[in-house]
């Protein structure tokens, strides 16, 4: 008996020693086709430039708007999409634990009782009753099974599961970054809409004063009914612009409420008071192109996907080779409960099992070719993801600089329009110009003021897009 047990132990040890062979290629981090420096257009005087210094991971705080910072913080703790992404990450980790369990033996316990009677005309009755009497059967024991990972199939499967966990984690990072960007964008658009509403109300006040002046001039015989009608139409036209802006403002507040997983109008009291559009006047740190792969969740996910596809090749290759399974059981069996557990009621069985794929009709070869094709696709996808990220950063840089130039030009246009409106009002009061000139100048001022508000918001929005393209934010 001792020699048999010793032989079994030696066999198990030998199989364990063979488990160091791992099939398939080892994953190597791919090279990223990125330039050494950004092709950045030099900023003009008065513009916020960029610097290749480390990216600010809490860039929303740099806008200097406490309300924005508070909303971003709350969104990262309450947002439903982020909670769902975290749940998917936990599911992926649970699947990894399932796969990793194959590296250890499976041990099952069993216990049972039955009362039965065998046939008198059938095969031998192991109970010794010859089928004449019923008998009790008590049993209990342990069963053990373990497959020797001779070719690293389990190890590669765990490697695939680890890469899948990383993919789920990068998906969560991507959702987190998207939530931050959406919160900042909606807040900036809200403040822009409120500023636009203030501009319209200011112009409405000017138009109403012009209408009152025209009516007074009509009484004095200086103005005509036509000019009064034109002034009244101007007031009505400007009033018509209020409702869409008020609607858009309410919708943006609700959009922010949804991002924060709160009911409609929950933020109405908090955000209904107008405030300036958040702006950023300092130099923007954008880091180096080579750092994109460390920050962008989509690049990190594409790399993990390539890792999973590479490891899956090893799993497919291992299926071509023999599989050895060790199994055994040890327990007790007795006709009387009082005998259960005695030395005479013991039973055991140990031994290896071997399975060799002899003919699979091309199934294994097809599976290997499939995994190799998936690895090739994942490699191409990684290169595409990196290149797309590079394009997004470059486009965001161009947009940021262009919006700054547009804003500066509109600032000058509004200043000229304001002086022109003051001048034409004075001339109209003196009777040297008709009311049509007043309408023309005021409409030009209103259009340029609205464009300036939008342009100011676009500068901040393009900066948010730039930070989103750089992949900064989820790390904090």
From TrEMBL:
Keywords, sorted A to Z: Cell outer membrane, Lipoprotein, Membrane, Palmitate, Signal, Transmembrane, Transmembrane beta strand
Domain of life: Bacteria
Name of the protein in question: Efflux transporter outer membrane subunit
Pfam families: OEP
Region (Disordered): 107-132
Compositionally biased tracts (Polar residues): 113-122
Record-linked InterPro entries: MdtP/NodT-like, OMP_efflux
GO cellular component, as recorded: cell outer membrane
Record's signal peptide: 1-19
Location of the protein in the cell: Cell outer membrane
Family: Belongs to the outer membrane factor (OMF) (TC 1.B.17) family.
Keyword Magnesium listed: no
PANTHER family: OUTER MEMBRANE CATION EFFLUX PROTEIN, OUTER MEMBRANE PROTEIN-RELATED
Entry's Gene Ontology molecular function annotations: efflux transmembrane transporter activity
Membrane topology annotation: Lipid-anchor
PROSITE patterns: PROKAR_LIPOPROTEIN
């Amino acid at each position: 008996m001792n020699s048999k047990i010793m032989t079994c132990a030696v066999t198990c040890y030998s199989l364990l020693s063979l488990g160091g062979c791992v099939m398939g290629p080892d994953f190597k981090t791919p090279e990223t086709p990125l330039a050494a420096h950004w092709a950045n257009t030099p900023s003009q005087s008065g513009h916020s430039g960029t610097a290749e210094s480390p990216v600010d991971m809490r860039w929303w705080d740099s806008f200097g708007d406490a309300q924005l910072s508070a909303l971003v913080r709350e969104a990262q703790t309450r947002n439903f999409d982020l909670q769902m992404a975290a749940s998917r990450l936990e599911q992926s980790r649970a699947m990894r634990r399932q796969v990793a369990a194959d590296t250890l033996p499976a041990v099952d316990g069993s216990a049972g009782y039955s009362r039965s009677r065998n046939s008198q005309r059938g095969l031998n009755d192991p109970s010794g009753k010859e089928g004449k009497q019923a008998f009790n059967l008590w049993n209990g024991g342990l069963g053990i099974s373990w497959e020797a990972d001779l070719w690293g199939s389990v190890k590669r499967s765990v490697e695939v599961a680890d890469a899948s966990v990383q993919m789920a984690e990068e998906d969560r990072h991507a959702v987190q970054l998207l939530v931050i960007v959406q919160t900042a964008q909606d807040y900036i658009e809200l403040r822009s809409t409120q500023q636009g509403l203030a501009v319209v109300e200011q112009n409405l006040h000017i138009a109403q004063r012009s209408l009152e002046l025209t009516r007074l001039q009509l009484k004095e015989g200086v103005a005509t009914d036509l000019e009064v009608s034109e002034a009244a139409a101007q007031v009505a036209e400007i009033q018509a612009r209020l409702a869409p802006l008020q609607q858009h403002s309410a919708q943006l507040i609700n959009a922010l409420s949804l991002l924060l997983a709160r009911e409609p109008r929950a933020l109405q009291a908090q955000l209904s008071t107008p405030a300036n559009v958040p702006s950023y006047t300092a130099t923007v740190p954008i880091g180096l192109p080579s750092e994109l792969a460390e920050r962008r969740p989509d690049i990190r996910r594409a790399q993990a996907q390539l890792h999973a596809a590479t490891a899956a090749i090893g799993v497919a290759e291992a299926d071509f080779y023999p599989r050895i399974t060790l199994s055994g059981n040890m327990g007790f069996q007795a006709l009387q409960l009082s005998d259960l557990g005695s030395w005479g009621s013991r039973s055991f069985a140990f031994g290896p099992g071997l399975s060799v794929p002899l003919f699979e009709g091309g199934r294994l070869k097809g599976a290997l070719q499939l995994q190799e094709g998936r690895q090739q696709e994942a490699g191409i996808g990684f290169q595409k993801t990196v290149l797309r990220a590079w394009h997004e950063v470059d486009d965001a840089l161009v947009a940021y600089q262009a919006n700054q130039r547009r804003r500066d030009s509109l600032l000058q246009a509004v200043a000229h329009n304001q002086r022109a409106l003051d001048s034409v009002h004075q001339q109209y009061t003196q009777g040297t110009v008709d009311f049509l000139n007043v309408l023309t100048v005021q409409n030009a001022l209103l259009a340029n003021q609205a464009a300036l508000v939008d342009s100011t918001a676009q500068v901040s929005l393009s900066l948010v897009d730039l930070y989103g393209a750089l992949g900064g934010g989820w790390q904090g």
